[in-house]
Specification:
Helices cover 64% and strands 2% of the residues. It is mainly alpha-helical.
């Protein structure tokens, strides 16, 4: 226990009771060790889950129908609108790296979440204002029948400024809120450790529940042309999320930021390069372990692992360094000698990269739900009597699938796997890597389902339509299987990703670990946009309309879906190879923040 925690305990003892500090190095808002009973746990966790639900409601209030807004209000064609949405969504998640960097390096997770949420609310308010005053002209335009007029460069510029402010705000906030939620549970405490594992499933569930309102109520109003109302509702929801987040300020547990990780990585690479001809010792204890006050990495020390042996040279103490250090008598040169824990931090990130790269193709599949699935559904029969079902609202079945599969996974599948493994001496359920592999298999089924539905949609479609909305007699409910498969695959892929990258990232780079999950979605959107562009260019030759023309009834969207199924199968094979190669992170159990008495700073 740290000196700060001991002093705090003495103060409380004078009042007749003793309070227990957390054991994972977490601190409170004032920089003192967090008291277990009065901080974190599910009280703070639930506030963060509700904040996530409201913020996601606001995000999907814009994102779920953005492709229709671009075609109806800004009058872009189908392919351009799908590409614009993919690029925007990609930007949302690439901004997660920005948020993770400033969080892990300088601001900490709480401050980063607060600042980016303010940007988010501002962007949503600007979008609502721009739509109401400039973009929706004539009044009532933007529905199925009334297209909007021409817009000036200033008006279109204002629209893109607002939506990319939303991208920056939501993207920068997202990885940090997930990690801040996980921070509320002490993994050194048995009860809280199990709650931390459960938190990621509930986090993804609340994120989907938040989008449920957007995909039904808001989606309906926006589809009927009431875009400004939908955008103002999104802005109000984001503002409520911000107020709720700030309301839990005194309860949250925090971790100190750890400085610029790029400098730490560069030091290891430079030091290893300078010692290219130095032999590495056989005994692990001969590597430089760092000084007692060395703060190059925070949290638990990382133990030496085999692999990437070239980098081990950065932790080899040479005779030249001993002479220089004796002459200077002022510590080692960090660009020539690094603690083995710092070297392992770099190794850890390098091991994560192949797994991360294999998740990008899955994100290409996932992003079709917000673009081509909507355009496909819009060209199907969307009416029941006089009531019209907005195509984008079909993602409700994705959300219901997510909720159902999370329940089945936690209550049925995982206990069954544990029971089966227990017979073989292993009490663990499905690992994160195994669940991600299952997610890829289900993604293949989703694309095959979408392709088969498209074949039948074309069979019952009219080629003479102009806009082709509702031009096929095939009912939109035939899309339910592809949405359900996507939802099931999300639970196995994205929930497992959040758990995996959070658990396997070094203690000083937890937000970066969550950002890797978001960034795979980002690159998936960019790859999707690139694939769509290539397919259009290659398939639209010799006066042929191509696979994804403006009139889907003259194209072959089914072939694009089957192409994605094939690419996902190839990706699955590569993923299995990478998963077998991967080695888990190895930690010592010492927590610097609460165990090193002389190293804690209030």
């Amino acid at each position: 226990m740290s000196m700060a925690c001991l002093e705090l305990s003495k103060e409380v003892k004078l009042k007749g009771e003793e309070k227990e500090c957390t054991k994972d190095g977490s601190i409170d808002l004032n920089g003192k060790p967090a008291i277990r009973e009065t901080s974190g746990k599910w009280v703070a966790g639930i506030m963060i889950l509700l904040n996530q639900a409201l913020a996601t409601l606001a995000f999907f209030g814009v994102g779920v129908n953005l492709v229709l807004f671009l075609t109806r209000v800004l009058k872009e064609n189908n392919a351009d609108a799908a590409n614009s949405v993919s690029k925007w969504t990609g930007t949302v998640y690439i901004c997660s790296l920005v948020g993770a960097f400033v969080s892990d390096s300088y601001w900490g997770r709480f401050k980063t979440c607060a600042i980016f949420q303010v940007i988010y609310v501002t962007g949503l308010s600007l979008l609502a204002l721009a739509s109401q005053l400039y973009l929706l002209k004539p009044k009532g335009c933007g529905n199925r029948t009334t297209l909007c007029g021409e817009h000036s460069t200033m008006e279109i510029g204002l629209f893109y400024i607002s939506v990319y402010m939303i991208a920056l705000g939501y993207g920068g906030y997202q990885p940090n809120i997930a990690t801040l939620g996980a921070d509320q549970f002490d993994e050194q405490h048995p009860g809280e450790c199990s709650s931390k594992v459960a938190f990621f499933s509930y986090f993804y569930l609340f994120m989907n529940l938040g989008s449920l309102f957007s995909n039904t109520i808001l989606d309906y109003f926006e589809d009927e042309g009431m875009w400004a109302l939908g955008f103002w509702a999104s802005a109000a929801s984001a503002f409520a999320a911000l107020m709720l987040f700030l309301g839990g300020t005194a309860r949250y547990r925090h971790f100190k930021s750890n400085g610029n990780p790029l400098a730490r990585f560069a030091q290891v690479l430079v030091a290893a390069t300078k010692k290219g001809k130095v032999e590495t010792p056989e005994n692990e204890d001969d590597f430089y372990q760092g000084e007692d006050d060395d703060d190059t990495t925070s949290g638990r020390k990382m133990l030496h692992t085999h692999g990437f042996k070239f980098l081990d040279r950065a932790a080899v103490v040479t005779s030249r360094e001993l002479i220089i250090d004796n002459q200077k008598q002022s510590g080692h040169n960090s660009w020539r000698l690094c603690p083995i824990s710092q070297v392992e931090e770099v190794k850890c990130i390098l091991r994560l990269l192949p797994i991360w790269l294999c998740t990008i193709i899955y994100s290409v599949v996932f992003t079709q739900m917000a673009s081509l699935f909507v355009e496909q559904g819009d060209a199907m029969k969307t009416t029941i009597g006089n009531f019209r079902i907005p195509a984008a609202s079909m993602s409700t079945f994705d959300i219901l699938s997510v909720a159902g599969v999370i329940f089945l996974n936690r209550r049925v599948l995982n206990p069954l796997v544990r029971k089966f493994k227990k017979c073989k001496g292993d009490d663990a359920g499905l690992t994160e890597l195994q669940r991600m592999g299952i997610g890829l298999v289900i993604a293949v089924l989703a694309m095959l389902s979408a392709g088969i539905v498209e074949c039948y949609r074309l069979k019952y479609a009219s080629n003479d339509c102009k806009h082709c909305e509702g031009s096929s007699s095939l009912n939109i409910f035939w899309q339910i299987p592809q949405y359900a498969f996507i939802g099931a695959s999300e639970v196995f892929m994205y929930v497992a990703q959040l758990e995996f990258f959070n658990a396997q990232a070094p203690d000083g780079l937890k937000s970066f670990g969550s950002a890797l999950c978001m960034t795979s979605i980002s690159l998936g959107n960019y790859v999707s946009s690139f694939l769509v562009s290539i397919v259009i260019k290659v398939s639209a030759t010799d006066n042929m309309p191509g696979w994804i023309p403006g009139n889907l009834n003259k194209g072959h969207l089914d072939r694009f879906y089957f192409l994605l199924a094939g690419l996902t199968l190839i990706d699955l094979a590569a993923y299995i190879a990478c998963a077998k190669w991967y080695k888990n992170i190895k930690h010592s159990e010492k927590i610097q923040g609460h165990e090193e008495e002389d190293n804690f700073e209030v």
